[in-house]
Structure formats: structure tokens, C-alpha cells
Description:
hydrolase; four-stranded antiparallel sheet
Amino acid sequence: MSEQTHTDADAIEYDETIELLQDLVRIRSPYFEEEAIVEFVYEWLDDAGLDPEYQPVREPDITGYEGDNVLARLEGSDPDAPTLLLNAHVDTVQLVEEWDEDPLSGRVEDGKCYGQGACDMKGGLAAVLVAFRALADADLRGDVILSAVVDEEGPYGLGANQLIRDGITDECDAAIVTEPGPILAQSELENPALLLGARGRFLYDVTVRGHAAHGSQPEKGRNAVVDAGTLAGALAEMDVGTHPKLGDGSVCPLSIEGGGETLSVPEACRLLVDRHVVIGEDAESVLADAERVVADLDLDSDVEIGFREAPAPDVRYGPYVTDEDHPLVRSLTASAESVTGQAPAIGYFSSVGDFNYFGHRAGLPTVIVGPDGENIHGAGEFVYTDEVVDVARILVDATTAFAG
Ligand SMILES: [Zn+2]
């Protein structure tokens, strides 16, 4: 790495950053309905002279989704220097109903900015945008690619998937994702914090087939709902993997659908079960685990276990861990300390997101560093405004060190 190039993280101004955050929060953008915010991000980058482009995201088979990511690139002076991906998602969950104010108010009070998606992750999106613009004035050897992606909160992470499909991640050597950090970590942490990995996730899709009979004579049938319930209980108790950094895997039965109101022994039903996994567990072993549980139960019904339908076999959330000694982690550690005055805590994410695609599928050393808040995905969601600014400054400083 060359000598530290001079870029002033103080180029990130509080007021302007938080005004941008408020603008972003005020744009309704649940997943699959991101047109307005995508256009806003494009225009913002374009107005800053940063040559953004739309990257079409298409998934015709399952969701019929058509949208666009926004990409922008800063070209470094040395083709051999590392390329860094800065990634944020633009979508939110659906607006929840329990808000006792406008869920898109963007109200700032006591250092908190309120709104659906304020913390997850318009705070991180604002930080990435202002950091990227500040980096345009830096003297970088490596490239920096900004990706503002759609559909992180949707079922398949189609925006990040498109980065992989189109080879964008092949050009990168490491990734930073500014998702909310500590609040979604496996352990209790506070910012500054770096999250260096995440568990993976599979969704068992189980069909249970029994045998119909008149409901007044249940002994003449095989009750698929009863067997699915027994199976759900057994799966919830099964042994799962453990990892020194990622912690334990977990299993959560999510739904049993089947049967009806007619007086019949239900002949079939569908059981969906979430399984979070750690490194060392893959599709094959996860399937084998469930099949062992089924074999041990010896149910009357026939059981067929698969995974949730996906746009392609590789569209899966695998687990990953980034090495604490990776140069990007070292750069972020030093920058977090210089910006906040505190050495960052190290943690691991509790669930899955686009970062799994970068860390696992694309094999990129991937770090989550993002502003914290509360009530994520719920009413009263907010992000701490000073942490949004801190994250932007950390991004500028660390990118200048890593790619400078
Ligand atoms: Zn998120």
C-alpha cells in the first residue's frame, strides 16, 4: 500500500448529509417499488458529475421483476491496485401500520432521524453517496465502484444478484456494505463496529402427503397436518452447526398450509422451515439433516423435502467470514478509530442480506459498517444522525487508505 493519500474526511458535512438522508427517507421505496428512489439516486450522482449508469435488473421467471440498480465508478491510476465495492440497498420493507406519525416524515429530533427504512438502510445509503462524492476528489490508485441496489428486502436480493450475474463483483477485490451494524449483530455491540461475516440461510419447502378419509373416522386416513406438525416440532429441535465466530445455526418453522374446512382428514400440506447455517453447512448437508429427522420419525405420511424455489440454483444465502487481518479490515479499523476516537468492536451479523452474496457467492472479503438505530422494520424506526456522518467519514478515510 502506498503512503496515505490526503483526503479530508471532514469534507463530509453534517447538515448536508442529514438533509440528503431526509430526502431519501421521504421517498417511499418498498422492495419491487423502487423507481422513484432509483431515479433520485441517479440524479443526485449525475448532478455531482459522477457519471452514474442504470443497470437493468430482470427476473422474469418467478417474480416478473423489472427494475434498475444505479452504478458509478471512480477510476484509479493503477490497474493493479485493489478495486473496492461500496454497496447500499435503496429499498425498504413495506410500510408498517403502527406508526403514530407519517412513516416517511424524515423528522430529525435529538439526533435521530425517523422513518421507515431510516436505519435499514437509508442512513447507510446517504453515507455511501456523500463518501463516494468526496472520494472523487481523492488521489486513488484503485477503482471504487458504488452500487445502489434494488430488492434487498425482497425474497431473492435481485439487485445484488445482478451485480454477480453481470460480472461487476468479478472486478472487485473487497466490499463494504453500510447496513445497520450493531443492532443486527449476533452479540451486543455498539458503534463503532465492524461486522466481519454472517450466517447463511436455507428455506426448507416440505410437502407432506397423507391420505384423505371422512373426518369423523380419522383412523381411516393419514392426517398430513398432524404429521407436518410433528415434523415441524422435530425439525425445530434438530442438531445444527456451530462456528467459533458465527455462533450457532438455528431452525424456525414458519408456516403449515393445508387442509380445509370440509370434514376430511387433510391429505396434503406444505411446511416451510427457516434454517440459518454456519460455515461447513451446505445445501447437501442441510437437506441430509432434515431427511434424517424424517427417517427417525417414521411418519405415516409421505414427506418430500426441498428448498424454496429460486431464480437459479446459486441464488442462495451462504455463510462467510472475513479475515480480521485483511487490509480492508485494517484500514477500516484505523479509520473508525481516527473518526470516532474509539477502536471498533468486531462482530458478526445475525441474519442474511446482500452481503452474503458478496462474501459467499462472489468470495469477496466483505465488511459491514453502518449507522445504528432502533425499531428496524417496525414503527418508530430511526437512525442516529451522527453515526451516519461518522460512517461516511470512515468510508472516505478507509477507502483512501485501502485503494489509495
Ligand atoms: Zn437492510
